[in-house]
Amino acid sequence: MNSSVYKHEKLQLLRKPDWLKVRPPFSPECRRIKSTLSRFQLHTVCQEAACPNMAECFTSGTATFLILGNICTRNCLYCNVAHGKPDPVDKNEISRLMEAVRRMKLEYVVITSVTRDDLPDGGARVFSDCIQRLRQENPFCKVEVLIPDFQGNPAALEKVISARPDVINHNMEVVKPMFARLRPRGSYDVSLHLLKKVSSSSVVSKSGFMIGFGESRDDILQLIDDLAAVSCARLTIGQYQQPTLKHWPVAKYYHPEEFAEFREIAYQKGFQYVEAGPLVRSSYHAAEAGKRKCFG
User: What pTM was estimated for this model as a whole?
Assistant: First the structure.
């Protein structure tokens, strides 16, 4: 574990406030979704990353599919997804995903992946194939993808843009001063450049980040400004929650009123749609964002 985590060990004693308490995912609909995912041997970021909204999303019949396996080649200090050496790409994964989407009767699909630095294009071709298959087999289904940075490979990004999903999301995750510590194999500038390229295309651009790592208010406002400067259209801001004691500790639990303030600031900066709240994650209310005609 990074030695800087030990330096902040006392912060692990912070108690979760009442507004972060959520019900466990035990409803009949949750069990049905879990059963479908298990039957088709599919992963979701909801489960792998221990998302606090799993009960709400599963109950509403939605899930964010995790393709390219469930082993990430990176080890970001806030993330609960397993890391190590991934298995080879599963050639049948897309077909199983299509069947699951059909059985779940989804009208809005979110697809993300682990980071696959072991692949020449970072998995961009698989994203493209998923989008094209969904267009063919579920033409009325909206498609949002949450992509890694592809190590700044412009050809890889173009593969995804050319497949024409409805939304391309790429999360900044953390503020710039903490980026190198929390995302040591990523690049703040590379991620911003990726979003700028998406914004200049016909595809809706989206990003998100978490707060509570120890950043300052000015750090948060600067990240909002940086995303506005690359014309990012949609934004999510959520509270970081420490998955295990091995992960980066929580420095602060932001009050819902503080999230409301950041939401209003983002709208003032020109974002078309903003979700900001303690339990917000990058795919939270993604379908609702697509349906909204008016913003702010």
Answer: 0.88
Q: Tens digits of per-residue pLDDT, 5-35? A: 434 444 446 788 888 876 655 567 667 777 7
Residue 290 inside a domain? The answer is: no
Asked whether residue 37 is assigned to any structural domain, the reply reads: yes
The 10 Å CB-count burial string (b at 16+, else e) for 117-145 is bebebbbbbbbbebbbbbeeebeebbbbb
Residue 261 lies in a domain: yes
Task: Please report, for the domain that includes residue 107, its CATH number.
Answer: 3.20.20.70
**Letter for the amino acid at 48?**
E
**Is residue 293 in some structural domain?**
no
Domain count, the chain: 1
Residue type present at position 149? D
Angle, CA of 166, 170 and 172, to the nearest 5°: 150
* Residue 77: how many other CB atoms lie within 10 Å: 19
Q: Which domain holds residue 272?
A: 3-7+16-284
Cα dist from 216 to 18, 137, 212, 278, 280, whole Å: 23, 46, 9, 17, 20
Count, in order, helices (H) and strands (E) of the chain. Answer: 12, 8
164-183 pLDDT, tens per residue?
999 999 999 999 999 999 99
